[in-house]
């Protein structure tokens, strides 16, 4: 298949998974290319996500790599045939690619689990809250760039509010609920928004109370996007160098363990709801 004009997170992930299977068999790309009647350049393009690959070739490669995980094979085949042009593509050339990749990963997730320590999760933010965060973090950003960032963040909410919502669970530190990124009015509206999302069944929220002893997870923020099989999970983490999309199994296992550890430090959903109600009246 011809090279794709735009790299997408999903296409890149498919190529990466095919490369992992090849490397697990100890095979060189040149050997596999000969099997497909291609050359090493084409194999490189497939494994980097630059070129697409057919479902037939995916299944042929999986068989050649002696992969017996039918769930994984079917999931990779589905990725190869996916022609989804999501709403996020409207922002290509308008916003940095990471915005589009984040929305794409969320769209294809079977479940979303998030930890946020210093801010309200993006999927729960109000427009005023999002605008205040972007304005503070990127001072001097012109309205022509600020507005699409806020709009994109609001449209991401369709993943948990749409006709076929993705299960979403988030752990928020009480600190984030108390901080006023703008003013009292914005803070009150933000807490009401969270309460509405909980009551409408769009989100399960757990809160880490400020008095919690032994919590040293200030840098634990992450978005865990569950795949159709565990091997296709993705964790998104904001780093000083930008957003990292993590899919290496050893790292995924470490982050799954971290999520469970943070979860144990949080209140259950009922107690969390009560705390958020209290904070909304306190403001």
Protein architecture, described:
- The chain is α/β, with parallel strands linked by helices.
- The protein is 52% helix and 12% strand.
- It is built from 13 helices and six strands.
- The protein has helices at 9-24, 29-36, 40-48, 55-64, 70-81, 97-108, 127-137, 143-155, 158-161, 174-178, 184-199, 249-264, 269-282; strands at 111-116, 168-173, 204-208, 222-226, 234-239, 242-246.
- The protein has a six-stranded mixed β-sheet, sandwiched between helices.
- Helix 2 crosses helix 3 and helix 4 (55-64) runs antiparallel to helix 5 (70-81).
- It is elongated, with a radius of gyration of 21 Å.
- The mean pLDDT is 93.
The class by helix and strand makeup works out as alpha/beta
Query: Low-confidence parts lasting 5 or more residues at pLDDT below 50?
Result: none
Overall geometric form = elongated
Spatial arrangement of strands, main beta sheet: 3-2-1-4-5-6
Count of DSSP-assigned helices: 13
Compact overview of the structure:
By secondary structure, this protein is an alpha/beta fold. Helices cover about 50% and strands about 10% of the residues. The chain has 13 helices and 6 strands.
Features:
alpha/beta, six-stranded mixed sheet, single chain, 283 residues
What is the topological layout?
Layout: H1 9-24, H2 29-36, H3 40-48, H4 55-64, H5 70-81, H6 97-108, E1 111-116, H7 127-137, H8 143-155, H9 158-161, E2 168-173, H10 174-178, H11 184-199, E3 204-208, E4 222-226, E5 234-239, E6 242-246, H12 249-264, H13 269-282
């Amino acid at each position: 298949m011809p090279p794709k004009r735009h790299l997408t997170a999903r296409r890149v992930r498919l190529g990466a998974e095919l490369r992992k299977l090849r490397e697990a068999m100890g095979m060189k790309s040149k050997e596999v290319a000969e099997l497909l009647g291609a050359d090493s350049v084409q194999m490189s393009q497939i494994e980097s996500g630059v070129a697409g690959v057919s479902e037939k070739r995916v299944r042929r490669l999986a068989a050649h790599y002696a992969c017996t995980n039918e769930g994984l094979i079917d999931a990779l085949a589905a990725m190869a045939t996916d022609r989804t042009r999501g709403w996020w593509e409207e922002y290509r050339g308008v916003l940095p690619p990471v915005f589009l990749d984040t929305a794409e990963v969320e769209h294809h997730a079977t479940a979303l689990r998030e930890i946020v320590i210093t801010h309200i999760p993006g999927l729960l933010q109000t427009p005023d809250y999002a605008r205040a965060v972007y304005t503070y973090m990127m001072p001097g950003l012109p309205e022509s760039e600020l507005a699409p960032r806020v709009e994109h963040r609001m449209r991401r909410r369709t993943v948990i509010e749409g006709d076929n919502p993705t299960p979403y669970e988030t752990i928020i530190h009480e600190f984030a609920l108390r901080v006023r990124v703008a003013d009292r009015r914005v803070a009150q509206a933000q807490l009401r928004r969270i309460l509405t999302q909980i009551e409408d069944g769009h989100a399960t929220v757990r809160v880490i109370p400020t008095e919690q002893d032994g919590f040293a997870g200030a840098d634990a923020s992450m978005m865990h996007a569950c795949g159709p099989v565990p091997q296709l999970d993705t964790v998104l983490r904001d780093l000083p160098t930008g957003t990292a999309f993590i899919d290496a199994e050893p790292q995924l296992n470490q982050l799954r363990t971290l999520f469970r550890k943070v979860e144990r430090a949080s209140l259950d959903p009922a107690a969390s709801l009560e705390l958020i109600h209290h904070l909304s009246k306190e403001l």
